[in-house]
Design goal:
Length: 578
Amino acid sequence: MFGLEKPAGQHEPGRSGGLPKMASVGDFNVLSSSIPATKVELSVSCRNLLDRDTFSKSDPICVLYTQAIGNKEWREFGRTEVIDNTLNPDFVRKFIMDYFFEERENLRFDFYDVDSKSPNLSKHDFLGQMFCTLGEIVGSQGSRLEKSIVGIPGKKCGTVIVTAEELGCCRDSVLMQFCANKLDKKDFFGKSDPFLVFHRSNEDGSFTICHKTEVVKNTLNPVWQAFKISVRALCNGDYDRTIKVEVYDWDRDGSHDFIGEFTTSYRELSRGQSQFNVYEVINPKKKGKKKKYVNSGTVTLLSFLIETEVSFLDYIKGGTQINFTVAIDFTASNGNPSQPTSLHYMNPYQLNAYGMALRAVGEIIQDYDSDKMFPALGFGARLPPDGRVSHEFALNGNPQNPYCHGIDGVMEAYYRSLKCVQLYGPTNFAPVINHVARYAASVKDGSQYFVLLIVTDGVISDMAQTKESIVNASKLPMSIIIVGVGPAEFDAMEELDGDVVRISSRGRFAERDIVQFVPFRDYIDRSGNHVLSMARLAKDVLAEIPEQFLSYMRVRGIKPSPAPPPYTPPIHVLQTQI
């Protein structure tokens, strides 16, 4: 909750004056990276709330809770204002939340009829609640979710409408250029070789590096190249947060000499080239020692240009659907499913590694797929009745319609398959990749994007064909996630991942990096907390999807469709707002 926004929970004077400031930045979350993917603003409206007041209508308030990943404990995130005497409130105060595509953020909205100024919720009448995920709101058409309020048996509690709006400052990038004059000479034989290092300040007063310029050799008056940086990375969207810039003289051995530093902020920089953006470079040590010290040179901002980027959420809001397909390895190396040592062992009390990977990834992606129907495939098994080996069979036994309803449907089909196919081999990926690619090739207009999750125990048998399939698929709207389960060596998978060296086949390189591989064993929580394991796995395998998605749209020049018109709630004459 940084920045210019006023967070929910800072209460205005008036009817709700007795309620304290309840919203907080939230407890530190080990899974969250330092820069939120983006911030979204949630607006809440209700229709036909329960009437708990005898002589007038209810006086509703909405309280938002978020859930900790490890222990599932609900924590209050913030409260809206109270609105007097209405069953159809449109709350003015918004909730501003960090949004990560790759994390499942469970939310609970509780509604109360406020009867006094007490901040203690147990002193007020409960009107019901609604559970959802942040992904569900964002993934709904027009990022608008309408759901029934529940929680009071035998009563109709009305409906709640939550809309999500991405905050603009998260999407801006700036193109900046700097030069310097009369920097201190640090080299014995020549002039200095200066470069700049930018740091953004954190909530606790510490600094995090966010950009380094190139080195300009042998000059005390360098002009650096213009560079582009997201406003999020530069100041986390807070225009007044301190930005510290250090000036160094580059040395080959890495022991760069400190010339001096200055501080600024996004708001100051945004004034552009002016007398306000000429900074004295100060070396505190020199300043302390020399009475006549003025500065160690000056740095001047030459240009400042704001560019607004289209975001992943723009496409989702415009109606792009994410289609999720699952492919499971049924080769014999997994071990006999009836034995506890098998990776496919059906333990009645806990998920096996395959089940955990399916649930971890699927439960997040399903929020972005409106029909929640997922094709689920298997490979490497002998199928009844004739025992033929298949590398592309429907887990539900219906090749004409391999779709399963929701992740629960996928899990059901997976367990059903284990009972009726024979684990065999070899481990071929190309058929399932080509299967999804056929669908992706038929919709290249940006209305759909395909994600294939392959869960496998092992060493790939058709490496050349798989590389060829991935190179072909890199031109299509699709991404591939591979989760390796069990103890095998996964060297070949690292090669497919393409993070270090872009994958190629027969001299052709992949147009974009579309494969993300992770070994499941890296995510096993030592304390046996499977919820945490699954959250970490999902975070890592899904983190690259938005960028892979955007790279396809950019290369093809596809712009987001306009979002459906915003919802305008009906006006109620009796409503008074505080």
